[in-house]
Amino acid sequence: METSPQVNIRRAGEELSVRVGGAWKMGATLPPQAGEALSAVREGSARTLILACDGLTDWDSSLLVFLVQLVRTAQETHLTVRRDLPHGLERLIQLAFAVPAKQGASRTARTEGLLACVGSAVLALPEKLREFTAFLGDVTLAVLRVPLGRSQMRRQDLLAAMYECGVLALPIISLTSLLFGLILAFVGAVQLAQFGAQIYVAGLVGIGMLRVMGAIMVGVVMSGRVGASFAALIGTMQVNEEVDALSTLGISPVDFLVLPRMLALTVMVPLLTLYADLMGILGGFLVGVSMLDLNALEYLNATVRMVSFKHGVIGLCYATVFGIIIALTGCYQGIRCGRSAQAVGRATTTAVVHGIVGIIVATAIITVICNVIGV
Fold it and tell me: Where are the transmembrane segments (predicted)?
């Protein structure tokens, strides 16, 4: 009794006969004649391929795969195929070729070059801009519906989003802003101490935190914490078809999901920025009093004297723009998320990256505008 797969190849004129026998089991080592049979069919020297059994004792899907490969190769080389196989095996082969494979359905390993990747990205850019513009238009219309009383946004969703964006973010904002104020004061003190101008550390920390650095720190932290959360939450709802269910019920997903989160971030990021500014100034205060031997009252008076009100207003403008950017990127990536777990992860990562890049670009633009108008 054969215990291993057997393949016998015979040639008779223009006929190529391939007979299988033995026991075909998954994991068994195929004989060299299996590869020779495929090569002989691929050569196309014969006109007819005959498939038959000779002492076949047992078989599973490994035999079916081998025979399907032979038949498919014969079809590609235009050979006539005649089969003399057991009824069950014959039926499985017929099922394998009952429905032709769709064009492009099979995966092919294809590596694109640098120019091809750049070209594909450039060609896809207009469609992405169109989708984002449409999303931005939907959000704008949703905002305009709020004062008219026609919005489908729920008040409890807005309060929950404000709590998530504001109260729950206080610990991480406190830590990062305090440490950043310490670092900024320490770096300034190293240079200013050489000229005996340690008192100007107060102005350096105060202006730096109020004007831009406090808003940037809050923006980066909120992009990684809240922007990613929004993208993951809405993306998961896309996977579970909950967004489609809202649309089916006549509820606008933009009003129900995007609007409360965008309003919450637009309100809470400026408030968190004010808190971050105070924590940063506190960090500079600790360095000035403990390391620079400055009097506490002297440091506070120098901060009030050197830091004007306009720096705080400019910082709040930065923060408001950052809040809108973080909300738009997070919600847009969630709404446009695919229908798989991998797509949710990709949307979350993209939301964080786009949010931080948007913050940097917005900072550069607002800074140039402030310099042009002289504020």
Answer: 160-187, 199-221, 271-292, 312-332, 352-374
